[in-house]
Amino acid sequence: MKVYKVELMIIDFDGLGADAIKDEIENTHYANHCISPTVKNIHERDIGEWDDSHPLNQLDTSDYTYRELFDEL
Question: How open is the CA angle 23-29-30, to the nearest 5 degrees?
Answer without folding.
Answer: 115
